[in-house]
Specification:
Blueprint (H helix, E strand, L loop, with lengths): L19 E5 L2 H9 L3 E8 L2 E12 L2 E7 L3 H7 L6 E10 L6 E12 L3 H10 L8 E19 L3
Antiparallel strand pairs: 1-7, 2-3, 2-5, 3-4, 4-7, 5-6, 6-7
Length: 156
């Protein structure tokens, strides 16, 4: 991929223009779609800058659960949290790269460490790490704001 100086745009490439429409998703449908896939991205603040990490997740009673590995950035994030948690965003999507149709959901809320040993054990069984390492716990994200949209073909 060729890089460009800041403030300059690459020369546009001719693309086939497809007729699509964007539909906002109700919260319930957005959460259902989020729960239908395993991979998403957690967005948090690291050294006063936004940081993004791809992670696998599950939806449990409306909360987003993410496991963390020892020594990871997310483990460090848990160590510095306040009682109320830290504000994060969680994004997941399923958009076809050819048709450009699909959906995207963003859930924003407070992330806290899962501390109950029974829950930690349960999530350890349900969420297998994708990379080698020792998992040390889990994060619970309680969505306060859930937004989503679906890209559909426009009817003729």
């Amino acid at each position: 991929m060729k890089s460009h100086r800041f403030g300059t745009a690459p020369t546009p490439v001719a693309l086939r223009t497809a007729k699509r429409r964007v539909e906002d998703l109700p919260t319930g449908e957005a959460l259902k779609l989020l729960g239908s896939i395993e991979l998403g991205r957690i967005v948090f603040t690291r050294h006063a800058l936004p940081a993004v990490r791809p992670v696998n997740h599950l939806l449990d009673a409306g909360d987003i659960i993410v496991r963390v590995q020892d020594g990871s950035t997310l483990a460090a994030l848990l160590a510095t949290q306040e009682d109320a948690g830290i504000v994060v965003a969680y994004e997941a999507d399923a958009i076809d790269p050819r048709s450009h149709l699909g959906w995207s959901v963003v859930a924003t809320g407070y992330a806290t460490a899962v501390t109950d040993p029974t829950e930690i054990e349960r999530y350890a069984r349900l969420l297998q790490p994708w990379a080698a390492g020792t998992a040390s716990g889990a994060i619970r994200i309680r969505p306060g704001l859930v937004t989503g949209f679906r890209l559909r073909e426009d009817s003729p």
